Amino acid sequence: MNRPMLKISGLQAWYGESHVLHGVDLTVKEGETVTLLGRNGAGKTTTLKSIVGVVRERQGSIMFDGRDLMTLPLHHVARQGIGFVPEDRGIYSSLSVMENLMLPPKFTPGGLSVSEIFNLFPNLEERRNSQGTKLSGGEQQMLAIARILRTGARFLILDEPTEGLSPVIVQRIGEILKLLRERGMTILLVEQNFRFAQKLADRFYVMEDGHIVDTFSASELDSRLHGLQAMLGV
Ligand code: ATP
Fold first, then answer.
1. What's the pLDDT tens digit per position in 105-153?
2. Residue among 12, 14, 19, 20 to mutate when testing ligand 1 (max atoms within 8 A of CB)
3. Spatial separation of the C-alpha atoms in residues 198 and 210, rounded to whole Å
4. What is the 3-state composition of the chain as percent helix, strand, coil, each rounded to the nearest 5?
């Protein structure tokens, strides 16, 4: 069995006085694709932001590859090989595609070269000199993923990568994530698009009110489908 790459135990988080996470336990094994499901406001984004250290009012333990992320400053988290694509994608609007791509330093060996990235995302090559503001939502999402692949990250965290995108682009994002998984990338994603998550994930966690309330593998999904669809409103 693959070793745990990320192991979160008893994670609590706050925004000021507001206590949002109440003891989250979640594990992602090396090479796995894990999806975090849950209603709006359940605490999914806060969980991701707590892992990468954007949310700093936290308690509990977040171990990545044997190292406690809780004690690391924000700028050291990416150096561990963790790439985060936030919900807003984080593309700099005044910079070109190429400038956005080259912005983060290569943190670990093994990142893709620019030509490998353009093989994977031919549309980004066509738009290499376009400004961030001129890109469609799908192009921004692809650029956000491409930028991380260049850094050499081994663990990809995505917050609702399909949000607001057309079905054709959603399919393309799915193909890219599958390809990355085949190449050994470990992936944790938050997704409201249940059909998309269903095609991709090895394992699921379900969150409600700042807790994990269920976890199951892809093979158990069918037996959970009815309840999940009702809960997520799909
Ligand atoms: P969504 O899909 O709506 O983003 P989510 O499951 O990702 O849902 P979170 O964004 O983690 O949920 O939000 C969890 C709770 O924390 C919600 O009650 C939300 O209102 C609150 N919250 C989120 N961000 C902040 C913030 N910056 N300040 C205060 N409260 C916040």
1. 787 778 888 999 999 999 999 999 999 888 999 999 999 999 999 988 9
2. 20
3. 23
4. 40, 30, 30
Q: Please choose, from the candidates 76, 67, 53, 135, the residue with its C-alpha nearest in 3D space to the C-alpha of residue 101.
A: 135
- Measured in Å, residue 116 CA sits from the centre of ligand 1 at 36
* Atom number, ligand 1, closest to the C-alpha of residue 159: 7
Give the residue from 146, 102, 140, 104 showing the smallest Cα distance to 121.
146
The protein residue with its alpha carbon nearest to ligand 1, atom 1, reads 40
Give me the interface pTM, i.e. the ipTM.
0.95
3-state secondary structure of 203: strand
Q: Which one-letter amino acid corresponds to residue 228?
A: L
Tokens representing residue 78 in the block? 């990416």
CA of 199 to the centre of ligand 1 (A): 26
Residue with tokens 């943190």: 107
- Tokens 């959970």 -> residue: 224
